[in-house]
Amino acid sequence: MTRFTILYCRRSDGKLETGTHGKRERNQPTAPQLSQKPDAKGVISYYREITHDEAKHQDWRRKLAGMLIRQLGDAEQIARDKNFILHDLPENYRLFEHVKSRSTEVDGKVQKNPKTHAGGGHDRQDAYLYGHPLGRKKRYRSPAEFFPHLLWLSTDETGDRNNCSCKLCAPDDIQPEVKEAEGAKAMVAKKDESKAPKKKAMVALPNRQIPTPEAPPQAQPQAHPPVQVPSLAPQQRFSQASPQVPQHASHSPSPYTQVQGSRSQTSTPIHATYAQGQPATLADTLRGQMGTMPSPMVSQQHPAQPQQRPAQPQPRPAQPQQRPAPPTPSPLAQPRSQEQQLDLEYGRFIYRVGELVWFNRGDAWGLGVIMRRWFYHAESRGYLVQPLSHPFDQSQPAVVINLDSYLRPWLAWSAPSFTTDRLNQVADISYDALKWDLLLKGELGPGDPVIDASILAAKAIDKSWTPFELVHDQQNSPFLYWNGVYLGGERLWVGEAARLRMGGAEDVIVIAAIIERVEKNQPYGLSGQSPIFLMGDVYTLATVPDGAVEPPDQASLPPRMREDARYRNRVSTMSPTGARVYWKLVKAKLQVDFSNIKGRWYETSCLLPIIKGQAAFEEAARRGEIEPVGPLLNARVDCGPSAGRRFATRLEAFGKAVPQGSRLVDGIVPPSAPPQVSVPISAAQGSGEGQYFAGEGGGLEEFVNLEGEGWGFQ
């Protein structure tokens, strides 16, 4: 059994009861919502409280502790203890589960439930955290959404909720431009009057010194023009149907001034305490977010000199107030290969060569890696997936998946427990260290070796990273610049966005450079440990103020981010309360360690229909209620914050989990003779409602995504 270091949250603002319209009410689902009585159509929809010992409660506490220790822990403590968990949620905060399913009784007879997935046969099981002082309608949908509030509880000794950047305490909307000057003056006055001591963290904040690299080399457009890729018609770029929504009338974009100092989760000001042209480190950014006290003005007196009347000041002409210049976005990198161009285009491929994925095997879900991908024609894609297995199983055939909906990103779900119970009792068990002969002989107990091997291999891949396509290797420089990197189960490129652990749930960094520092006389091709980090611009998804014109074109953004925001804004017109969004630049040229990257960023318009199901997605789109997909995804290395182990090649990171002789194939040309076509799958299974693994053993109740409870895809 994995051992955890327990963290305690000593302060809470949770309320069991709140006042609404002069009446007191319980801060939890209402009595009708707690009722398990089916409606007229036989649908059962109710809420139930999740107890402290249930797996979902434990996973929330585990993930919250992991995020907290990454933000506040020191490197020595993290390396020593590795796994962390909260002793309990903050006082008076309670976790409830929304269970929705159809009754299995028809005319008094019990019917077989066709849904056999790990959620227990329910259509959905979403988790919500109640307890916020604003009442039962203010609830958190995921650990990532609650984390900013937990961080505020753990660090802000004043208890001032104005300092909290969570979604409930600091709504997303920014104020119109006309109030910007007032807001800036108010913030300055508040800082000058404040005499509170600096905030103390629960654990010491690491102070890491990293030499500042040179600015990344800029690619010349003439030398590296955008590669040519077979074009698709706009309506064919994403094969799944999208709801028809009216287009906004075209307006000429106006200069859209970004308010400085807006207090919201997605627009927390980051104090620029860095030298001009120097990248900002994560520790500096965090210290800036925690607040910097201004130095008091001290008047120097000389008692030995007689007092003199001060000279009357000469009147000076009024100087216009200088407003801080908004950050300037970095130039967007140009693709250097066809693979990079394909991955950076909107609606081309969701999944990439070399990535770790869940795939539908017909009667179960398995874990595998994408070895190849292609276009059959303009509207159809194919993927060659190699299942993961143990070192003595070299005969696992690769399968062909022809639909995006039969795949899921690795971070869409959490790995279940091992089918061999004895493996669950060993801390930090690894794929390479396991004695496979004992497991295959059954000496470790009953279980399925193939399933356990795939879980172990996936966890090992999640802790790996491999840079590729060396861009710049300056002589006598300790820094190497790469065009891409395999980070955990995913492939990242320069010029695209990655999800951040710091900041809000939808904060991303647009990668301008991938930089590795190598020690003296150390060849860069060796496997092992090596400092590596990203440089880029941090953006947050902000809300367009009421009455404002269209958001700016945002040409400095990657195409996938631009197109996804446009789609979401078109859909928002279907709702009377729909809010338009835009990507707001928070900080340029920020330096971020790999350990603070959750994973790559996915378009809501492309991935959410797969996770939620196409029909449910279209119904939500017709209502104008599209929610972001980012908070529904897990983060890599959730319990062990580290960059991981470096491998020279991606195949080396797979180890013996794939057959010898396997190779990754770039390009979009179909194979001449596909080895095996996937088994036909029902619509329910294709939408994510199939059983996980068909094997012995337990632990299937843990096959859920607890950082993305919004859609409940168990």
UniProtKB/TrEMBL annotation:
Segments of this protein annotated with the region Disordered: 15-40, 104-127, 181-200, 209-267, 286-339
Biased composition (Polar residues): 233-267
Composition-biased stretches (Pro residues): 213-228, 312-332
Cryptic loci regulator 2 N-terminal domain location: 84-169
GO cellular component: mating-type region heterochromatin; rDNA heterochromatin; SHREC complex
Compositional bias (Basic and acidic residues): 15-27, 181-196
UniProt record, GO biological process: silent mating-type cassette heterochromatin formation
Pfam families xrefs: Clr2, Clr2_transil
Compositionally biased tracts (Low complexity): 300-311
Residues of the Cryptic loci regulator 2 C-terminal domain: 481-603
Highest taxon above the source species: Eukaryota
Name of the featured protein: Cryptic loci regulator 2 N-terminal domain-containing protein
Species annotation: Trichodelitschia bisporula
Organismal lineage: Eukaryota, Fungi, Dikarya, Ascomycota, Pezizomycotina
